[in-house]
UniProtKB/TrEMBL annotation:
Disordered as annotated region, ranges: 246-287
Superkingdom field: Eukaryota
Membership in a protein family: Belongs to the TYW1 family.
SUPFAM superfamilies the UniProt entry points to: Flavoproteins, Radical SAM enzymes
Protein name (database record): S-adenosyl-L-methionine-dependent tRNA 4-demethylwyosine synthase TYW1
UniProt keyword annotation of DNA-binding present: no
Residue intervals of the Radical SAM core domain: 376-620
Residues in Flavodoxin-like domain copies: 78-236
Top-level taxonomy: Eukaryota, Metazoa, Chordata, Craniata, Vertebrata
Organism listed in the record: Neomonachus schauinslandi
Function: Probable component of the wybutosine biosynthesis pathway. Wybutosine is a hyper modified guanosine with a tricyclic base found at the 3'-position adjacent to the anticodon of eukaryotic phenylalanine tRNA. Catalyzes the condensation of N-methylguanine with 2 carbon atoms from pyruvate to form the tricyclic 4-demethylwyosine, an intermediate in wybutosine biosynthesis.
One GO molecular-function entry: FMN binding
Composition bias type Basic and acidic residues, residue spans: 246-258
Keywords associated with the record: 4Fe-4S, Iron, Iron-sulfur, Lyase, Membrane, Metal-binding, Nucleotide-binding, S-adenosyl-L-methionine, Transmembrane, Transmembrane helix, tRNA processing
Name of the encoding gene: LOC110589767
């Protein structure tokens, strides 16, 4: 028998499965296919369900019901500022606030009288707020009393190189002005100016400026209320567009990617009612879009024609003056008067001026004084910065007025009397101080003190010693118990020798070699170097306090240490002020850039090296914020303590004795010294900042407007 047959039992279940294996395979295949089909159906249903949920969630998010993801905020709120005299602007601001509230936006209505732009305006750069300004024009085109400080600050900031053209970049704003076209010469002047100044500081205009007209006959919409409603409608529509994140309103009729109707993007002063004219032009020093060049060129051509016509008229006037040999011309021409007035000068007569120093403003608000306060104890809020001569004999590369002042080597203009100059200088200074009454942060006691001038810095601009009656002017100052700080550019040695005593006499030592002095000061005199040396020798003969004023210009005069040391021995000054140059912005008159401005630590390094070469001197004081240090002669270090401050009352007593004696009762610098406080000394932790005041740090630290 075959053994294999014994092994296989055909009656067993395994044998049965083997014999029917085809059906088993078929069953398995069918089951797997069925499972696969089932899985496909399940997954397709899940996918459809997910799509439905996603769509429903998207609809809900679109309607704002369930913010599963944080929505980007394009407008966080609206701030409405108003300056009102009779209450109309305030009413419009309130009306606008009610309308903005309907858009579910936070809104704040702010009286400009209670707002400090110096502290808070720069915050709008990053706040995502939209700022609306509703401002009225008052008598003679002036702002209402409540907006005077804001407008003055804005005007000065827009023309101050320390702020620059991007100070408010990122801020969004719109302006509505209130005025009366019956006064055509200054119709809506305040609104136009606020619009212009904000734009000059880099802010972005989001809506066309509106102009309300109280003259019903000339109002575009029949009344000032209707003018405001028309502007408000446009502003609210623009606000809704901004809320959606759209930068420009667009109706689809675009040209080269820009809406033809988007007037809010124009970098000009524009309104919905006016045509672009001579007043509404772009600052030619700013960056211009290519598509705006046509308007700019038209303006330039028109301005050129007007200038030529003016020159022709001036030529006729000059010819007339030439025929009148006995009459001298005025130093301040109409064009110069306009330029200096725009820079904030209060001009006096035909050749003098006064201006409010930023340190005066700072100390009025308890935010610290200038370096003269730290070094010599002046009260900055009581200091008047003026000059009896706007003319100068140099064209220094760091001139902070970009040479808008006249130049000359001798006095060849009409001359005003010193009594008139001093009287009007004090009056103008007091009027500028009065504008700070009620300004947020101004200390009442310092405001009252500021109205009484105690110090006069004859260093505003120009060369004060050129004024033929400078000694009479100084005598008048001292009779009024006003101390005198006179600065000269070391080109008039005879005048320095003939000068009567002053509280402190400065000589600008901007370079130590003939070549570098010519390069930096660009003097008009051909014998400038000999005049410079003779001026230093004349300084050495003075008995009152004398100061060398060194302005460091990196890469131009910081490597001349030995030559500086030799000049110190020539003039033997009581003090040496060393200050880093202040960059005054771009100018065709100077090639100076920020690269030429030394850091404070670099100034300290220079001073240390210089002191090593002049053994009779030591570093006495520091004013970090002005990037300035004081080197003092050791004779002012009494019993190991510095006495660099001034006893001003004692100086006035000595001057009175000097005048009463006809000049025979002389006195020296050490006769009116005062002890220097510890906080003013070099190495003190305060670094020259008076602890009685509060140090103010700007919130927008990227915008550096330091300088002196």
């Amino acid at each position: 028998m075959d053994p294999s047959l014994d092994t296989w039992d055909f009656s067993s279940p395994l044998m049965s499965l083997w014999m029917n294996r085809f059906y088993v395979y078929l069953g398995f295949a069918f089951g797997i296919s069925l499972w696969i089909c089932f899985q496909i159906v399940i997954r397709k249903q899940d996918k459809n369900s997910q799509k439905s949920v996603t769509k429903a969630t998207g609809d809900l998010m679109t309607n704002g019901y369930i913010p599963l993801q944080k929505k980007e905020v394009f407008v966080s709120g609206v701030k409405i500022f108003y300056g009102s005299q009779t209450g109309t602007a305030k009413g419009f601001a309130t009306s606008l606030a009610e309308a903005v509230t309907s858009l579910d936006l936070p809104v704040a209505v702010i009286n400009l009288k209670e707002y400090d732009p110096d502290d808070h305006l720069v915050e709008e750069v990053t706040s995502k707020n939209v700022c609306a300004f509703v401002v009225a024009t008052y008598t003679e085109g002036r702002p209402p009393e409540s907006a005077e400080w804001f407008c003055k600050w804005l005007e000065e900031a827009s023309s101050d190189f320390r702020f620059g053209k991007t100070y408010l970049k990122g801020m969004r704003y719109a302006v509505f002005g209130l005025g009366n076209s019956a006064y055509a010469s200054h119709f809506n002047k305040v609104g136009k100016n606020v619009d212009k100044w904000l734009w000059m500081l880099g802010a972005h205009r989001v809506a066309t400026r509106g102009e309300g007209d109280c003259d019903v006959a000339k109002s575009k919409h029949g009344s000032i209320e209707a003018d405001f409603r028309a502007w408000k409608t446009k502003f609210l529509a623009r606000l809704q567009t901004l809320q959606k994140g759209e930068k420009k309103p667009c109706d689809g009729n675009c040209k080269r990617g820009q809406c033809e109707s988007s007037a809010e993007e124009e970098p000009f002063e524009s309104t919905s009612e006016e045509e672009s004219g001579t007043e509404d032009h772009q600052n030619l020093n700013s960056v211009v879009d290519v598509e705006d060049l046509g308007k700019i060129m038209n303006y330039v051509k028109k301005e050129k024609r007007e200038k030529e016509q003016q020159e022709e008229k001036s030529g006729l006037v000059r010819n007339t003056v030439k025929n009148e040999a006995s009459e001298r011309r005025a130093m301040i021409t109409p064009a110069l008067r306009e330029a200096l007035t725009k820079q904030g000068y209060q001009l006096i007569g035909s050749h003098s001026g006064v201006k409010l120093c930023r340190w005066t403003k700072s100390m009025l608000r308890g935010r610290g004084g200038c370096y003269k306060h730290t070094f010599y104890g002046i009260e900055s809020h009581r200091c008047m910065e003026t000059t009896p001569s706007l003319a100068c004999a140099n064209k220094c590369v760091f001139c902070w007025r970009h040479h808008t002042n006249p130049v000359g080597t001798e006095w060849r203009w009409k001359m005003d009397q010193p009594e008139m100059i001093l009287k009007e200088a004090i009056e103008n200074h007091q009027n500028m101080i009065k504008q700070f009454k009620g300004v947020p942060g101004v200390k009442e006691e310092r405001f009252e003190e500021g109205m009484m001038v105690k110090h006069c810095a004859l260093s505003l601009v120009g060369e004060p010693i050129m004024y033929p009656e400078i000694n009479r002017f100084l005598k008048l100052l001292h009779e009024c118990k006003i101390s005198s700080f006179l600065v000269t550019n070391a080109q008039f040695p005879v005048e320095i020798r003939n000068l009567k005593p002053v509280t402190q006499l400065y000589v600008s030592v901007d370079a130590s070699t003939k070549d570098s002095l010519k390069k930096i000061d660009r003097p008009l005199f051909k014998d400038f170097w000999q005049r410079f040396l003779d001026s230093l020798k004349a300084l050495a003969a003075k008995q009152q306090r004398t100061v060398y004023r060194l302005t460091l210009v990196k890469a131009w005069n910081v490597d001349e240490l030995q030559a500086y040391a030799e000049l110190v021995s020539l003039g033997n000054p009581d003090f040496i002020e060393v200050k880093g140059v202040t960059y005054c912005g771009e100018s065709s008159a100077s090639s100076l850039t920020m690269a030429n401005v030394p850091w404070h630590e670099e100034v300290i390094h220079f001073v240390r090296d210089l002191v090593d070469l002049i053994p009779d001197y030591e570093i006495a004081c520091e004013h970090e914020h002005s990037n300035c240090l004081l080197i003092a002669h050791k004779r002012f270090k009494i019993d190991s303590e510095w006495w660099t401050w001034i006893d001003y009352n004692r100086f006035q007593e000595l001057m009175q004795e000097y005048e009463d004696s006809g000049g025979s009762a002389t006195f020296s610098a050490k006769d009116y010294v005062a002890k220097t406080p510890h906080w003013a000394l070099f190495g003190a932790c305060e670094r020259g900042f008076d602890p009685k005041d509060t140090r103010y740090q700007r919130k927008n630290k990227s915008k550096d407007i330091s300088g002196c």
